[in-house]
UniProtKB/TrEMBL annotation, chain B:
<keyword id="KW-1003">Cell membrane</keyword>
<feature type="transmembrane region" description="Helical">
    <location>
        <begin position="223"/>
        <end position="247"/>
    </location>
</feature>
<keyword id="KW-0813">Transport</keyword>
<dbReference type="GO" id="GO:0055085">
    <property type="term" value="P:transmembrane transport"/>
</dbReference>
<dbReference type="GO" id="GO:0005886">
    <property type="term" value="C:plasma membrane"/>
</dbReference>
<comment type="similarity">
    <text>Belongs to the binding-protein-dependent transport system permease family.</text>
</comment>
<protein>
    <submittedName>
        <fullName>ABC transporter permease subunit</fullName>
    </submittedName>
</protein>
<dbReference type="InterPro" id="IPR035906">
    <property type="entry name" value="MetI-like_sf"/>
</dbReference>
<dbReference type="InterPro" id="IPR000515">
    <property type="entry name" value="MetI-like"/>
</dbReference>
<feature type="transmembrane region" description="Helical">
    <location>
        <begin position="38"/>
        <end position="55"/>
    </location>
</feature>
<dbReference type="Pfam" id="PF00528">
    <property type="entry name" value="BPD_transp_1"/>
</dbReference>
<keyword id="KW-0812">Transmembrane</keyword>
<feature type="transmembrane region" description="Helical">
    <location>
        <begin position="308"/>
        <end position="334"/>
    </location>
</feature>
<feature type="transmembrane region" description="Helical">
    <location>
        <begin position="12"/>
        <end position="32"/>
    </location>
</feature>
<feature type="domain" description="ABC transmembrane type-1">
    <location>
        <begin position="188"/>
        <end position="376"/>
    </location>
</feature>
<keyword id="KW-1133">Transmembrane helix</keyword>
<feature type="transmembrane region" description="Helical">
    <location>
        <begin position="259"/>
        <end position="282"/>
    </location>
</feature>
Length: 565, 392
């Protein structure tokens, strides 16, 4: 009989209703539905109690992990910094061995100019440098020289007419007459927003007229970028500022193609005279301009790299994390001298295995003794195991640093005992040995505790029975006791291994260069080299390994059975 | 258990064993003063003769003989190398006096089953020695740090003055440094400001959820449990990296609340585990009984359920507290200079300019952990008593 009373206000079934049909509860509803409702209410109550914590953990912990996973494939910096270039570059075929067309260089010039005004071009240079060494310095030095071309043009333009140097005049020329072209402004707003991350939605007060935008597309683009950046990011009055030099480069480019004879907006006369005197301006193709700054700009390889990393998402970081590289010609091995991550993963796994194994060797006898001593004595010894477990990790790590170093306690004792010559003190720190010793010590309690709880459940009479049946000590242990303690070894090993492969602090302090783990590399990429994508990809791989082990642990031991202390 | 009756053994047996120990210690004394092999032989011969004589002549007067050993060794040690020698001699004298008569009287077999062969008896004691050595390995780092923190010099090893028990070799200088340095005090203050708030958050949410999880019908229990326990399983560096990215996006990176939230998340699994463990033995009919007598759910919770699970909640809180108090990886990434905690300061100290003040801080932290460990142990026993389990 089910205990219906525990589910709330439901009595037994009234006697007059047992004739036929479904069994009813006290309030006249079918008992089945009533029970279901109570069960549902119970479930909801349980969930309501859990919900606050679940939301808390999802926001403060799971969301950050998801963010990290997202960062390991995210790659919008290239298309955000060079939006038009990447669009134009799509149709270029890198296998021809020729640099891209002049149109790509024109787009690249305007993109780079806006980026260097916003000081974002060096970030992109750093990003591309991960894939192609030397790009960073190209971007940095070229960014400084972008003005030169515009300055030369402006000098020549000033000779034709002084008004070209007047910011307010250029503003009115760009503003033009008739319908404003808001599409150009919106395009620019999005581009600058993506470039700088700044809010660009406010009121700008400037929009080029459709006629100007059609007549002078490059100049309009450069000027609108300038206007959006100056007006909305810098918060200055656009009309009063001198335009970017790129505006004049755009003007010269446009005048070569445009037919200004039919135009009658503000400054039409000036456009006409300038068009007529275009021969006075020392026009230079942008391809030549970039080639003059750095020969590598006309090297197709650099463009192939930009093309390869144009998409918003890339597998590049993950490939880097396993010593491969995404090149324009497909996935390739990295150069021998740059292959470090596979080696680091292998070292992390190998050292974690060594640590796990030493923990088994040292932990097994202790757990055995604890499980076979009388309770009072076992509790006393247990304190010796629990005390290091409760002691701060940094205290234990610093203790090992002090003990293991060349002028440390262990070396001093050995020298005093005459076992080691003073001139040849043992090197026990800043190498794998130091990391293994310190981490074995730190993780040993995590091995002893699960082993102990499993061994407590093995009846000591089994061993005696085996011996009375003629088994030797060794046979009795190996064939009877040991197999029963294997679950404890399994639980302890997985726990120690999971904790070991993610360790950061101890290898950082006692590991030197040869005793560091993959975690140290992740930390390095996040805080020093700032290659966040690669750090995130390495983290994602490590996370997958740990989660697989966690799953195995859950299967073997069950998360509910984790015991503390 | 004591079925074995102690049978006195021959003097040669006791003296032989003592000679073995003598050879072992002789090796160290020998290497320390020049020649290992000579030390082994001298130690063995000396101990054999001494033990043999002692057992032959003074078998009836154990106490006197032990005192004789003690005095003899202490005086010899003092003559050999002053106060450190005397201390060493005292230890040796106690050890040899004890071992000789323990073996000679046959008491070493009393705790063991009578059918064991001599080899098995030897293995029994060898095994205990091995375990003892491992336990010493576990505890040594802590034992080394505490005396070194009273060092008068800025060294990380025992100075000759310390080994001679010269009061001038000891001082409280590193403790003074800790209590007067603004860096350390700032770090301590930050730790004290962060850990309790993180603990309160973790315990508040965690206890409620643990009660929810212990209800009989919880949908997706496995999945929820896996998510809630995950902060303990995911390597800290990954949590730290993720939190660094995500908290920068939402403007929490480098703020006090960012660190508190991160630490609360890390402490939650410990609260969940300890509280659910307490709830396993909780008798649910008590809640029904309370409801039956007219208590509403809130009253039932505070008057009936809470007092019973309180030990588990407090141990969970202590775990969460120590997690936050000791945590360094996440705070390194999520915090900024304004949230520099004690472990962070220690970490920079260890990586850059290693100063002996760290030893004083380490000793203080060891004292705190001993305090917490004692509290948790007492609570565990109390909880088991409350739930009617026998204290183990």
């Amino acid at each position: 009989m089910t205990d219906t009373t525990q589910n709330g206000p439901m009595g037994g079934t009234p006697p007059e209703e047992k004739a036929s049909g479904p069994m009813l509860a006290a309030d006249g509803r079918p008992l089945k539905r009533s029970l279901n409702r109570a069960l549902r209410r119970q479930k909801l109550r349980a969930l309501a109690l859990i919900a606050p914590l679940l939301i808390f953990v999802l926001v403060t912990f799971i969301a950050p992990i998801a963010d990290m996973l997202f960062r390991s494939v995210e790659n919008d910096i290239v298309s955000n910094t060079l939006p038009s270039t990447t669009a134009e570059l799509k149709s270029w075929d890198h296998t021809t061995g020729q640099p891209p067309s002049e149109a790509v260089f024109e787009d690249f010039y305007f993109d780079m100019f806006a980026a260097s005004e916003a000081k974002q071009h060096t970030r992109l240079g750093t990003r591309l440098n991960y894939e192609d060494t030397g790009v960073s310095s190209m971007f940095r030095s070229s960014g400084r020289k972008l003005d030169d071309l515009g300055k030369d043009y402006l000098k020549a333009l000033k000779k034709i007419d002084k008004r070209w140097d007047d910011g307010a005049f250029v503003y009115s020329l760009m503003q033009g007459q008739g319908t404003p072209d808001t599409a150009v402004v919106d395009h620019s707003r999005t581009a600058i927003h993506k470039l700088t991350g700044a809010e660009t939605a406010g009121d700008l007060g400037f929009a080029p007229s459709e006629a100007v935008a059609k007549l002078l597309p490059d100049m309009t683009r450069a000027y609108t970028d300038f206007a959006v950046y100056t007006g909305l990011v810098d918060g200055k009055d656009v009309a009063k500022e001198d335009p970017w030099e790129s505006v004049y480069v755009g003007l010269v480019l446009d005048l070569q193609k445009a037919d200004v004879s039919g135009y009658d907006g503000p400054g039409a006369d000036l456009l006409k005279t300038t068009k007529a005197d275009l021969g006075q301006i020392p026009v230079e193709s942008l391809k030549d301009f970039f080639a003059k700054m750095d020969k590598k700009w006309i090297d197709p390889d650099i463009w192939a790299t930009i093309q390869t990393y144009s998409p918003k998402y890339t597998s590049g970081y993950f490939l880097n994390a396993i010593d491969l590289q995404l090149t324009p010609d497909g996935i390739k091995q990295r150069d021998e001298d740059q292959q470090i991550y596979i080696m680091l993963f292998k070292r992390t796994l190998f050292m974690s295995l060594v640590i796990t194994f030493s923990c088994i060797v040292l932990g097994y006898p202790v757990a055995w003794l604890l499980a076979n001593l009388p309770a009072a004595k076992a509790n006393l010894l247990m304190i010796l195991v629990l005390l290091p477990f409760w002691t701060s990790l940094l205290v234990r790590t610093s203790a090992w640093k002090i003990m293991l170093q060349q002028q440390g306690v262990i070396n001093d004792v050995l020298v005093w005992l005459g076992m080691v010559d003073d001139g040849h003190r043992l090197v026990m720190i800043n190498n794998q040995f130091g990391t293994i010793v310190a981490m074995t010590h730190i993780l040993l309690p995590f091995m002893i505790l699960p082993l102990y709880s499993v061994m407590q459940g093995i009846p000591p009479s089994y061993l005696r029975a085996a011996k009375s049946l003629g088994a030797t000590n060794w046979t009795a242990f190996w064939r009877v006791y040991f197999p029963q303690s294997v679950p404890g070894i399994g639980a302890g090993s997985i726990l120690v291994f999971i904790l070991a492969i993610g360790y950061y602090i101890t290898p950082e302090i006692v590991g030197g260069t040869t005793g560091t783990f993959i975690s140290n590399r992740i930390a390095y990429h996040i805080s020093s080299s700032l290659n966040w994508g690669l750090g995130a990809a390495l983290g994602a791989i490590l996370l997958v390994i740990v989660l697989l082990l966690y799953w195995a642990y859950d299967r073997i031991v069950g998360i509910d059975n984790v015991k503390l202390g | 258990m004591a079925v074995t009756i102690a049978k006195p053994t021959s003097a040669t047996f006791a003296a032989g064993c003592a000679a073995g120990f003598g050879a072992f210690f002789g090796l160290f004394i020998g290497t320390a003063s020049g020649s290992g092999p000579l030390g082994v032989i001298a130690g063995a011969v000396l101990m054999f003769v001494l033990s043999f004589l002692a057992v032959q002549t003074m078998r009836g007067q154990e106490k006197t003989a032990k005192w004789a050993f003690l005095v003899l060794f202490t005086v010899a040690g003092a003559l050999f190398s002053g106060i450190p020698g005397a201390v060493l001699g005292l230890l040796f004298g106690y050890f040899f006096g004890h071992v000789t008569f323990w073996l000679a009287s046959g008491r070493y077999r009393t705790a063991l089953p009578p059918y064991l062969t001599p080899g098995q008896v030897l293995w029994h004691y060898a095994f205990r020695t091995i375990v003892g050595a491992i336990l010493v390995f576990l505890i040594t780092p802590i034992l080394v740090v505490i005396p070194l923190s009273f060092n008068a010099e800025n060294f990380f090893t025992f100075t000759p003055a310390m080994l001679h028990f010269d009061p001038a070799g000891y001082s409280l200088k590193h403790y003074r440094d800790f209590f007067t340095s603004s860096d350390w005090q700032g770090a301590l203050w930050n730790s004290v400001r962060i850990a309790p708030v993180a603990t309160i958050l973790a315990v508040g949410f965690g206890t409620l959820a643990a009660i929810g999880l212990s209800q009989p019908h919880v949908p997706f229990r496995q999945w929820i449990m896996a998510i809630l326990i995950s902060p303990m399983i995911v390597p800290l560096i990954i949590s730290a990296a993720g939190m660094y990215f995500f908290y920068s996006r939402i403007g929490l990176q480098g703020t006090y609340w960012g660190v508190v939230l991160a630490h609360a998340a890390l402490g939650i699994p410990f609260v969940i585990i300890t509280v659910t463990a307490t709830l396993v033995g909780f008798d649910r009919s008590l809640v029904r009984a309370a409801a039956n007598m007219g208590a509403n759910p809130v009253t039932t919770f505070f008057k009936v359920q809470m007092p019973l699970i309180l030990p588990g909640v407090i141990s969970g809180a202590l775990f969460a507290f120590i997690t936050s108090f000791d945590e360094v990886v996440v705070v390194l990434f999520v915090g900024s200079a304004g949230q520099k905690t004690l472990p962070w300061q220690m970490f920079t100290g260890l990586r850059e300019q290693i100063s002996p003040t760290i030893l004083a801080v380490a000793t203080i932290l060891v004292a705190i952990s001993i305090l917490l460990l004692t509290t948790v142990e007492l609570l565990r026993r109390r909880s088991e008593k409350l739930r009617g389990m026998s204290p183990s």
